[in-house]
Amino acid sequence: MPRQTSQKAVKPELLATPMGNADIVDFEIIELLFFAYRDFVSDPDAILGKSGFGRAHHRIVHFVNREPGMTVADLLETLKITKQSLARVLKQLIDSGYIHQVAGPEDRRQRKLYPTQAGRDLALALAEPQSRRIEKAFENASAAERESVKRFLRGMRDRNKIETN
Amino acid sequence: MPRQTSQKAVKPELLATPMGNADIVDFEIIELLFFAYRDFVSDPDAILGKSGFGRAHHRIVHFVNREPGMTVADLLETLKITKQSLARVLKQLIDSGYIHQVAGPEDRRQRKLYPTQAGRDLALALAEPQSRRIEKAFENASAAERESVKRFLRGMRDRNKIETN
DNA sequence: CGTATTATGTCAACGATGCTGACTTATAGT
DNA sequence: ACTATAAGTCAGCATCGTTGACATAATACG
């Protein structure tokens, strides 16, 4: 059915022009974020495949390494996923010896999470290609420009921060 | 349940200090990207839920609106997913009247994709909260700073670009 | 013309990662 | 003692990605 074949009736209106609302909606940044993140997370996948892990494992290993001793509740809050989702993946990391749990010294209900050496090695191996990509994206960027990027990215986060302490 | 009681001996080396390789690996940007994207994509979810769609639908509607007349192959290349993955979701959008297909005028094997008015409306509704978030993240940013952010995000993409014409 | 290639669609099975709901256990707080 | 909290677990389900195999139609080409 080319452009203007006269069909019975109800010709559903096709729109052939690109969305022309660039004045009120920032399509460019929306797409740049999509492409940037798509390729950014693709880096670690090859490495993860070898261990039989996925992106969910990556996140856990990353944050536990960044903040050793964080509790399960901390991790849930950071990742914004459910306990059941986390459990499945976390268990694999513990069973495989990448992460260890220790009962909290003050509140023994808590499980404080620590990386093993293997966990730290994995986290580092996964962060490396991502870091190289970031460095490449920043090439020739001044300190001020880098700061602009950080400020932008921080601004993209939700600001709700429920006070729970 | 497996409330671990006494461990035999084997004290596996726990690492209690945060990963100290910030000199060679840019953990800060890695995390900022994670949080930014996590919240960025969360915006449209509420809207999508109402239509019974998901993020996969969002991406398709977005790109078809941005480049009406793109082919299925174009879309596959853009999203970097498989034909089978795309088909399932694209079919729903077509059946629901958000996207229409037209046989290519020169190569009739192709299916050129166009948004309907409903498709355009949906794309716009989904882009809106994201755009607002971006504007907020850019508040008080100069044109030069915005440009720095764009340059960074562009630099995060893969540069392979296989010439296929 | 006939064959190969290409663009798309489809069936089937599976895997990763989310979700909800319901329940248990151990510990802490009052 | 009673209640609340931190964590773990079981069961089922949804979304969205994958591979592999095959079908159809149209184009490309020797």
UniProtKB/TrEMBL annotation, chains A, B:
<dbReference type="GO" id="GO:0006950">
    <property type="term" value="P:response to stress"/>
</dbReference>
<keyword id="KW-0238">DNA-binding</keyword>
<dbReference type="InterPro" id="IPR036390">
    <property type="entry name" value="WH_DNA-bd_sf"/>
</dbReference>
<dbReference type="InterPro" id="IPR036388">
    <property type="entry name" value="WH-like_DNA-bd_sf"/>
</dbReference>
<dbReference type="GO" id="GO:0003700">
    <property type="term" value="F:DNA-binding transcription factor activity"/>
</dbReference>
<dbReference type="InterPro" id="IPR023187">
    <property type="entry name" value="Tscrpt_reg_MarR-type_CS"/>
</dbReference>
<dbReference type="Pfam" id="PF12802">
    <property type="entry name" value="MarR_2"/>
</dbReference>
<dbReference type="InterPro" id="IPR000835">
    <property type="entry name" value="HTH_MarR-typ"/>
</dbReference>
<keyword id="KW-0804">Transcription</keyword>
<feature type="domain" description="HTH marR-type">
    <location>
        <begin position="26"/>
        <end position="158"/>
    </location>
</feature>
<dbReference type="InterPro" id="IPR039422">
    <property type="entry name" value="MarR/SlyA-like"/>
</dbReference>
<dbReference type="GO" id="GO:0003677">
    <property type="term" value="F:DNA binding"/>
</dbReference>
<keyword id="KW-0805">Transcription regulation</keyword>
<protein>
    <submittedName>
        <fullName>MarR family transcriptional regulator</fullName>
    </submittedName>
</protein>
